[in-house]
Amino acid sequence: MNPISAIVARFDLWLTRALDWAVIGLAGLLFVLLNVAVFTRFVLNDSVSWSEELPAHVLAALTFIGAAYLTRTSEHLGFDAVVRILPGAMKRVVMAGNLVLMAGFGALLAYYGAIAAASFGSRMLISVDLPMALFRYAMPLGGALIALVSFTRLAGLLTGQVDPDDLLPESDA
Length: 173
Hints:
By secondary structure, the protein is mainly alpha-helical. It has one domain. The protein is built from 6 helices and no strands. Helix 1 (3-42) packs antiparallel against helix 2, helix 2 (53-72) runs parallel beside helix 6 (138-158) and helix 4 runs antiparallel to helix 6. It is elongated.
């Protein structure tokens, strides 16, 4: 393995682990927040002020970071039945085109998401003293990660280091 391939492989491993922990952390936080809100409302009969707002923002952040995670694990929404039966060269071309489109989508999401997130400026959440931008910047971050994962996979596909079948989700068969 040449030095550039080793660097890309190490970065890919680091990115995968970071996405794993980010998704686990956000999902765990959402789980705790929702259970505390339900417990205080129905057991203590005293609702917390953030019971709707904070979990909603955490869920939105989880959605965008989770989209990058699903892109990395090839479990995003896709229609792969036709691609699976294509010959090798055609499969490589179709997968390369798919990765270019996904990278473009991620780049657009990052760009316009950053504009949207910046528009919140220094606004704070109503129920908790946290900046809205903390949650809104998950959109451009998720988009940038989608683009980064897609470009990395495209480079591997074009150099022959990644097999097109490795970019398809696992079969249910």
